[in-house]
């Protein structure tokens, strides 16, 4: 493809990916962003959650459990997350080390759209079976594979130095956010409803960018996305430590995985725009 057409196609693919991200968060984080549906029972207010198991008093949360349960829950979530990220990085690396795979992706562009749709369907199924073993792990594997494929389609459109720089920048940012949140003596207060509003604004911006393809707007959306998904990481870590029950390790893992993946793609947009402006 000519350089200008290749650039427009890459930006269009990234914008489409972020538009689908809104659906992902509606399935995963949206019930937490709205945070609660209050109903009246016996004259007293109680709280129910559409997805995820915690109540307003957090009586079932892992935060109230024994030390051994808390540590086991955290090890399980971080272990699954590490496996997901390693698998994703391996799949994405294949797009660089095997040129034929990148050529195949460019020739079969419709496969990216299929991957996005399949990912959403698997995410819905995974929530439905999130507590049923081994269904939850099987669904998580195929969902991670679909996410790795769509991310691989994106990184194959960038130069290797940009991707590597973004990878290390994302790793440093994630480690810093994890250390800050997990070592903090206080629960970090972030309004989930505010994050949801910001996510909606980012969605609108990406839809506009689908048609305008402005370099300045691409940089702005990258900066906004990086800031927003960094907040999502802190928010979801806070949920993990203070609100989720020990049975919700699947929910905690996929939330953090999505946050990190979207932070990576946002930083990728920033790094590419900065390199292009030089």
TrEMBL record:
Keyword Membrane found: yes
The species this protein was found in: Trichuris suis
Membrane topology: Multi-pass membrane protein
Transmembrane spans: 77-98, 110-129, 136-158, 164-182, 194-213, 219-237, 249-271
Family per record: Belongs to the BI1 family.
InterPro entries the UniProt entry points to: Bax_inhibitor_1-related
Keyword hit for Ribonucleoprotein: no
Places the protein is found: Membrane
Keywords of this entry: Membrane, Transmembrane, Transmembrane helix
Cellular component aspect of the GO annotation: membrane
Record's protein name: Uncharacterized protein
């Amino acid at each position: 493809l000519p350089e200008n057409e290749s650039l427009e196609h890459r930006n269009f693919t990234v914008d489409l990916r972020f538009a689908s991200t809104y659906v992902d968060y509606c399935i995963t984080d949206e019930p937490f962003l709205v945070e609660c549906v209050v109903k009246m029972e016996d004259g007293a207010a109680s709280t129910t959650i559409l997805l995820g198991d915690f109540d307003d008093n957090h009586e079932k949360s892992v935060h109230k459990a024994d030390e051994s349960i808390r540590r086991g829950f955290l090890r399980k979530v971080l272990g699954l997350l590490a496996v997901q990220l390693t698998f994703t990085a391996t799949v994405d690396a294949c797009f660089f080390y095997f040129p034929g795979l990148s050529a195949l992706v460019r020739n079969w562009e419709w496969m990216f759209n299929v991957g996005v749709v399949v990912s959403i369907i698997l995410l819905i199924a995974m929530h439905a079976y999130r507590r049923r073993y081994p269904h939850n792990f099987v669904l998580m594997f195929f969902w991670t594979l679909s996410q790795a494929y769509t991310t691989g389609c994106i990184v194959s459109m960038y130069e290797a130095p940009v991707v590597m720089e973004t990878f290390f920048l994302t790793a440093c940012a994630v480690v810093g956010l994890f250390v800050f949140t997990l070592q903090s003596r206080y629960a970090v207060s972030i309004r989930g409803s505010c994050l949801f509003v910001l996510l909606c604004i980012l969605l609108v911006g990406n839809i506009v960018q689908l048609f305008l393809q402005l370099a300045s707007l691409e940089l702005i959306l990258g900066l906004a996305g990086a800031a927003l998904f960094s907040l999502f990481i802190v928010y979801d870590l806070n949920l993990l430590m203070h609100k989720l029950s020990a049975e919700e390790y699947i929910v905690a893992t996929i939330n953090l995985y999505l946050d990190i993946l979207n932070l990576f793609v946002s930083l990728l947009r920033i790094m590419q725009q900065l390199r292009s402006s030089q």
